[in-house]
Amino acid sequence: MRQIAFDTETTGIGAEIGHRVIEIGCIELIDRKLTGQHFHTYLNPEREVDAGAFKVHGISSGFLQDKPRFADIVEDFLHFIEGAQLIIHNAPFDIGFINAELKRLQWSKKIDEYCSVLDTLVLAREHHPGQRNNLDALCKRYHVENSNRKLHGALLDAEILAFVYLNMTGGQANLFGEDELSETKVVLQKGGSYPLLESQSPVYFADPTELAAHEEFVRYLIDKSGKDYWSEK
C-alpha cells in the first residue's frame, strides 16, 4: 500500500478569504516503510504572509518571491500523490487549501479524485478521547523525536507525522525497511532531487518492565495452548 504523509504551510488561516499555500511537504511510505522518496517545494503565493502565520512557520514574503507558483508545480505534485492514501493531521485544513488552489486554476478535479485521505487527528481522538492531540502532544505520547521542530515546516512536519502515524497504528515492527535511511532526498518538480536533511530513523527499545510483561504473556500463551510455538521458529 502506498501512503504519503502530507503537510502544507500557508499565508494565514482561511483559504476562503484568499490565503494561499506557500509550502508543500510529502513523505512516501510503501507497506508501512519510509522509502526515502519525498516531494517538497516552497511556493510564491502572490500575496503577503500574515504576521501571525510568520510567527508559526518563519517563512517570509521576501523568501518566497523567487519561488515557483502553484501552477508551475501542480502537475508534478498531483502525479506524485496520485493513487496514494494521504495521511494528514487535521485534513480539512490542508485539503481545503489545495482544493482552493486547484479551483483558482480552474482545474477539473479536486484532490480526493486523485487519492484517498486519512485524518490522523480523527484517529488520535478515537484513540485518546478528551486529551490534547496536536502533533507535539502525539510526539510526546508516542516518543517520537521532534526537538528540531522549533517552527512549523511542511516537510519536517510530514516526516514527524509519518512516525507518529506508524506508532499510533501498529508500533515499531513495520517502521523501517532493511536499509537505514541516512539522508533525506527531496523530490522536486521535473524529477530532480537534492539532499535536504540528515534523517536518522529513531529506534525504540523495550524497557525491563515491558520485557518482563512480554515474557509473562508468552508463558501465559504457552500454558493456555499447551504448545510452545516460539521454540519451533
Keywords:
five-stranded mixed β-sheet; alpha/beta; disordered C terminus; two-stranded antiparallel ribbon; 2 domains; Nucleotidyltransferase, domain 5; 233 residues; globular; 8 helices
Mean pLDDT: 81
Order of helices and strands: EEEHHHEHEHHHEEH
**Strand sequence of the main sheet, in spatial order?**
3-2-1-4-5
CATH architectural label of the largest domain: 2-Layer Sandwich
The count of β-strands is 7
How many helices? The count is 8
Distance between termini?
28 Å
Tell me roughly what share of residues is in helical segments: 25-40%
What is the CATH topology of the largest domain? Nucleotidyltransferase, domain 5
CATH superfamily of the largest domain: Ribonuclease H-like superfamily/Ribonuclease H
Oligomer: single chain
Structural class: alpha/beta
Biggest β-sheet strands, sense, barrel: 5 strands, mixed
